[in-house]
Design the sequence.
């Protein structure tokens, strides 16, 4: 019992089945080992029309709900959160064009995005702007009909993939108060003056996360998303959808970690018995599954509230906090249950574990989620 309607359960089953039989666990593993972006799977997902899910019908999409989207993220992440990131970062960033784009921007970008010909990345972070995301130093200055950008961005996931458009937070007014002088500019990753370098990170090895150097990158005025000064509003809205997506994906990956650990516990014989028969192992598995179920319920609540258009920043942060910490805990326990075997790529658990380590950092740290939750609590 997980409170899904028949249609929702069918949709989740479909995504899970495609992952199992068409994308495959082995493909996801190999992309991580080779540190290559999952282009073939991205094209497959585009062909199936899943990139259209959240785009409203009057803009050429399927007009699905945020709940449907969360289920897709849960299914796509089952063999690794990083794999799902390639799709999530593109789809949740596309929604910024839907919500804040001009008619010309929607016309230019949405159809090629839904066809899988272009993709999106979100570029907020900088060396001095991490949790303090509005401490943006990258500057965009007007020059004739253009914006000229100088500065440095950091940790931009998927920025180096082919045909990526970066939704980049920049400071356009240095005299305005901190959150007021910010704007979002759409920057194709092939723009002259944009130098993208993939970082050799512990996690996010397939989708890749990058530092970006901007040296006089020149973008036409038409690349401004929304109005100058609306950057923080766009990013705040963006982060809510991003956190629902990633929380659902943490749950999908955490569930697979529990299932893999359970199977191993049944298969592995020591002292003439399956290690599953040792109560200490069974209790670990029971705790792991209980945490994943609790995380799933928090994620579904947040996704349902967002679908209904209810204010839900506290509930979204609760989902992000608990689901990320669950992924981290169950994968650490999964490593323990699988013993030495867990260290090998073919066991998959070390990949899940690495993703668990980054999950409490990327998308806003656990400390920041707790701050948001506490701020929203009332006596
Ligand atoms: C794999 C990966 C992919 C990422 N992808 C993207 C991306 O695509 N686009 C993008 O823009 N960014 C991305 N990020 C950046 C991510 O959003 C930041 O790493 C995150 O917001 C934290 O910033 P920081 O790493 O600078 O840590 P810091 O902000 O320097 O934090 C360091 C520590 O101090 C704590 N801390 C900071 N401020 C407070 C406070 N007020 N109260 C309590 N504790 C605090 C933090 O919780 C943390 O434990 C990615 C990060 C990772 C690791």
Sequence:
């Amino acid at each position: 019992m997980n409170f899904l309607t028949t249609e929702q359960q069918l949709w989740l089953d479909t995504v899970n089945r495609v992952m199992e039989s068409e994308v495959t666990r082995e493909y996801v593993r190999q992309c991580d080992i080779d540190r290559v972006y999952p282009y073939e799977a991205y094209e497959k997902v585009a062909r199936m029309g899943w990139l259209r899910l959240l785009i409203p019908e009057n803009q050429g999409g399927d007009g699905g709900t945020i709940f449907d989207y969360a289920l897709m993220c849960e299914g796509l992440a089952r063999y690794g959160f990083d794999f799902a990131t390639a799709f999530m970062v593109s789809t949740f960033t596309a929604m910024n064009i839907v919500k804040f784009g001009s008619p010309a921007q929607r016309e230019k970008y949405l159809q090629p995005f839904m066809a899988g010909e272009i993709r999106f990345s979100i570029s907020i972070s900088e060396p001095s702007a991490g949790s303090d995301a509005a401490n943006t130093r990258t500057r965009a200055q007007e020059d004739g009909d253009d914006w000229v950008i100088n500065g440095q961005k950091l940790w931009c996931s998927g920025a180096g993939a082919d045909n990526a458009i970066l939704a980049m937070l920049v400071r356009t007014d240095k005299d305005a108060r901190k959150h007021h002088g910010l704007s979002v500019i759409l920057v194709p990753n092939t723009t002259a003056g944009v130098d993208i370098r993939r970082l050799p990170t512990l996690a996010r090895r397939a989708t890749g996360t990058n530092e970006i150097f901007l040296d006089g990158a020149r973008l036409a005025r038409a690349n401004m998303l929304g109005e100058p000064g609306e950057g923080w509003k766009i990013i705040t809205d963006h982060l809510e959808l991003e956190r629902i997506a990633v929380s659902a994906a943490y749950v999908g990956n955490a569930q697979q970690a529990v299932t893999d650990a359970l199977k191993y516990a049944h298969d592995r014989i020591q002292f003439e018995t399956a290690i599953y028969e040792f109560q200490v192992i069974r209790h670990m598995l029971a705790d792991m599954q209980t945490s994943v179920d609790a995380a799933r319920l928090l994620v579904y609540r947040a996704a349902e509230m967002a679908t209904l258009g209810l204010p839900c920043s506290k509930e979204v942060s609760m989902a992000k906090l608990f689901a990320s910490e669950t992924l981290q805990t169950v994968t650490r326990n999964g490593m323990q249950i699988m013993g030495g075997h867990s260290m090998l790529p073919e066991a998959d658990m070390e990949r899940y574990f690495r993703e668990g380590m980054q999950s409490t950092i990327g998308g806003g740290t656990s400390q920041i989620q707790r701050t948001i939750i506490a701020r929203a609590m009332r006596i």
